[in-house]
From TrEMBL:
Protein's membrane topology: Multi-pass membrane protein
Organism per entry: Holothuria leucospilota
Name of the protein in question: Solute carrier family 35 member G1
UniProt-annotated location(s): Membrane
Residues that span the membrane, as ranges: 30-49, 61-82, 88-108, 115-136, 148-172, 184-204, 210-234, 241-261, 267-285
Domain EamA, chain residue ranges per copy: 2-132
One of the record's GO cellular component terms: membrane
Keyword Membrane attached: yes
UniProt keyword terms in alphabetical order: Membrane, Transmembrane, Transmembrane helix
Pfam families: EamA (PF00892)
Domain of life: Eukaryota
Keyword Transmembrane belongs to the record: yes
Length: 324
């Protein structure tokens, strides 16, 4: 759980710093630097571990390319939203990807999607609507409301892309793909897309201030540390437990946004955040209960041998050696 909380701290730090840099460094350039740092670090570790950077099959290449595109689009959209709307609201909308993941898992992986999942997805969508406050539903309730509508749409698009990426990564897990290989292809995709955007628009605009550049590069290292903490947490704990801890990022960002960045949230925003986080938490609890039932049934039907337990520990140890 410590590593899951570390992931939440790293993620909230990135969110807040990206927002603070909105008048200094463009979100596209921050995303490019993150891709550069992630590509370099993941490539070094893969080469050190003796892993092949090339896909093992065309089928693996398709899924690596898909998760790279979805991940790059999700991060790029996320950073834009962080710089153009209150970070607490943007973070909550982005975390609605948990509900969309369940929906896409039903569509693409044919997993169960019962009445509870339908209700939680509806609650999540309602929470997103409360935060976005579209003009055709809420009218001109607030003077600054139209200003945040487009960034909120972008944050929602980011959540959808992140959900698609999770589904693809689950498929890659069934292909026994090395944990860092998806990160490498994600970083390459992020660099390509953001690089094309930077060159085709106005070129590199990052100021020559050394501190600003160091902070931007530091965000890339923090992002890689976040990935490492999350990967190790998932290797030793249930994904549902980890999700419950990482959702705390929304509270961290929301509190910092209110008490330190001077943002005044509306009751609709607060209600939307509570609905999204609540639905995500209930989804995680349901998965924990379901996983325990399946584990108990598996133990009753086929008790795990000592050799299997040893192999399971070896897998965790290998991941630990890779990231820590």
């Amino acid at each position: 759980m410590f590593f899951a909380f570390g992931e939440a701290c790293c993620s909230s730090t990135i969110t807040i710093v990206v927002s603070l840099l909105k008048d200094t460094v463009d979100s596209t350039e921050i995303a490019f630097v993150r891709g550069l740092v992630t590509m370099f670090l993941s490539m070094v570790i893969l080469i050190y571990k003796g892993e092949n950077l090339k896909p093992s099959s065309f089928n693996e290449f398709k899924f690596l390319a898909a998760q790279g595109i979805f991940g790059a689009a999700g991060i790029w959209s996320m950073y834009y939203a962080y710089q153009n709307m209150p970070t607490g609201d943007a973070s909550a909308i982005v975390f609605s990807y948990i509900a969309f993941t369940a929906l896409f898992e039903r569509i693409f992986l044919k997993e169960p999607f019962g009445w509870l999942e339908m209700i939680l997805t509806g609650v999540t969508i309602a929470g997103v609507v409360f935060i976005m406050r579209p003009p055709f539903l809420f009218g001109g309730v607030e003077e600054n409301q139209p200003r945040y509508f487009i960034p909120a749409i972008v944050a929602l698009v980011s959540a959808i892309f992140m959900a698609l990426m999770v589904v693809v990564i689950r498929t890659l897990g069934k292909l026994n793909t090395q944990a860092l290989k998806p990160a490498f292809y994600f970083a390459c995709s992020l660099m390509i897309f953001t690089g094309i955007s930077i060159v085709s628009q106005r070129g590199w605009t990052m100021p020559g201030c050394t501190i600003t550049r160091l902070i931007t590069v530091g965000l890339g290292f923090v992002a890689f540390a976040m990935f490492s903490c999350l990967s190790y947490a998932l290797s030793v704990e249930s994904g549902a437990y980890v999700t419950m801890i990482t959702v705390s990022e929304v509270y961290m960002v929301f509190l910092v946004d209110v008490f330190f960045l001077g943002t005044t949230p509306t009751w609709l925003s607060i209600g939307g955040v509570v609905m999204i986080v609540g639905a995500s938490t209930i989804t995680s609890v349901k998965k924990i209960i379901q996983a325990k039932k399946e584990e108990n049934q598996a133990e009753e039907n086929c008790p795990q041998t000592g050799e299997e337990r040893e192999n399971h520990v070896d897998v965790r140890q290998e991941i630990l050696e890779t990231f820590v």
